[in-house]
Write a structure and sequence with these properties.
Layout lengths: L3 E5 L9 E11 L2 E12 L3 E2 L2 E2 L18 E4 L2 E2 L7 E5 L9 E7 L3 H4 L3 E4 L7 E2 L1 E3 L2 E7 L7 E9 L2 E10 L6 E3 L15 E4 L10 E4 L7 E3 L12 E4 L10 E8 L5 E9 L13 E7 L13 E3 L3 E8 L11 E3 L7 E2 L1 E2 L11 E7 L7 E9 L4 E10 L2
């Protein structure tokens, strides 16, 4: 059972019970990766997702899961009588055009050869099952014209039916563009999930792009077989918003092949404020240093002579995304705006993230106290400390 994991059942279950995890597949570059997991428990050893009926219509429809169950024999997965066992994934609540994954256990390669096939009125065509490790498997596509209802599925070996189950088809849904937001507002610099479900009769093409002033550039949507195995026409992306966005509501436009605009969604963006549950800014400073003496300890109050240089330090335990390139210190005492850069030296180890820069005090400045201001967290944090300037 190379694709089945068996573990003891949870405490409190009846003796002799085990939990069996059968992993459903995804396909990348023509190879099969196991990523979806369903777990069930039953008496003795249980295989997740099996249907054990041997005649059409005998299988009971699944409720709430994408698989049926079968017991495991000494020769491999199958029914309690040793007959072949069929595992289906994606066969319930399936829309036309979706994929159904099937696995047949209990038939050896010598018995089946290349003559194992599955048929169903719900499938677009008969499907030939291939051998892999210890079982046969295949992926079938539901007809785009399939009406809602339950359809029989049979698996035959050399023309003889050995197992059966049923597939539930539900109505098609119109294509939909989604832009979910986890909160009442998304923060600048955060990632957002963009999704387009295009599984609908008559839809074609795979060239979909989202454009927005909130994004650094156009974002192509692609099909991810790991997360959307059963829906072959699901396209998505997870880009990050610009880190310096102003508060507001931004439009996200979805364009299809040939540049045709398909849909528009809007997203509210607002930087966190003190008091918000996700506000994480914990800034302290400003501190002033003599740049010739290093940053071992700030001097309070710090006095700088006109025309000389002064080092400025700012600490923030949780800076906003991208803030490392945007922080500045401004003062009428400085010859210009001072950009603060992240200190990634060994001297910063063990300290809160800190940002520093060196400014020049204007020559001829009258002695006195001058404000030095840093604005952070998209304007939500503002700190001003006065610098004492002495005569030259």
């Amino acid at each position: 059972m190379g694709n089945v994991l068996v573990f003891p059942a949870a405490e409190g279950d009846r003796p002799g019970r085990f939990a069996v995890f059968a992993k459903g597949p995804t396909y990348v570059g023509g190879t099969m990766n196991w990523s979806r997991t369903v777990a069930v428990t039953a008496a003795g050893l249980v295989l997740c997702g099996c249907a054990t009926a041997t005649s059409p219509g005998a299988a009971t429809p699944s409720t709430g899961t994408s698989a049926h169950s079968a017991s495991v024999t000494a020769d491999g997965p199958g029914t309690s009588s040793g007959e072949p066992g069929l595992i289906l994934n994606g066969q319930t609540d399936a829309r036309p055009g979706q994929l159904v994954h099937m696995m047949l256990y209990g038939v050896s390669r010598a018995q089946g050869g290349d003559a194992v096939s599955a048929r169903s009125p719900a499938l677009s065509a008969p499907v030939r099952l291939r051998w892999e490790d210890d079982h046969y498997w295949a992926v079938g596509t539901l007809r785009m014209t399939a009406e809602p209802g339950w359809y029989p599925l049979t698996v035959a070996v050399h023309g003889r039916t050995v197992s059966s189950d049923r597939i539930q088809v539900v109505p098609s849904r119109r294509p939909s563009f989604t832009l979910p937001a986890a909160r009442d507002a998304t923060r600048p610099g955060e990632q957002v999930w963009l999704g387009f479900d295009d599984l609908y009769p008559g839809e074609r093409g795979a060239d979909f792009t989202v454009r927005s002033a909130a994004l650094p550039g156009p974002v192509p949507l692609v099909h991810d077989a790991d997360t959307d195995f059963y829906n072959p026409r699901a396209f998505s992306a997870r880009p990050a918003l610009k880190p310096d966005l102003a508060d507001g509501t931004y439009s996200f436009e979805l364009y299809g092949p040939h540049g045709r605009r398909i849909a528009v969604k809007r997203l509210k963006v607002r930087a966190s404020r003190p008091g918000d549950r996700d506000y994480r800014g914990k800034a302290h400073g400003l501190d002033f240093y003599d740049p010739g003496r290093g940053y071992s300890a700030p001097t309070h109050p710090f006095r700088a002579r006109a025309g000389r240089r002064v080092a400025v330090m700012w600490h923030d335990r949780y800076p906003d995304p991208g803030e490392e390139t945007r922080l500045t210190a401004t003062s009428p005492a400085f010859t210009g705006v001072l950009r603060l850069r992240r200190d990634d030296s060994k001297g910063a180890d063990g300290d809160d993230p800190r940002f520093f820069g060196t400014a020049t005090v204007r020559s001829g400045l009258e002695p006195g106290r001058y404000p030095v201001t840093v604005v952070a967290h998209h304007g939500r944090v503002k700190r001003t400390v006065h610098l004492t300037v002495t005569a030259r």
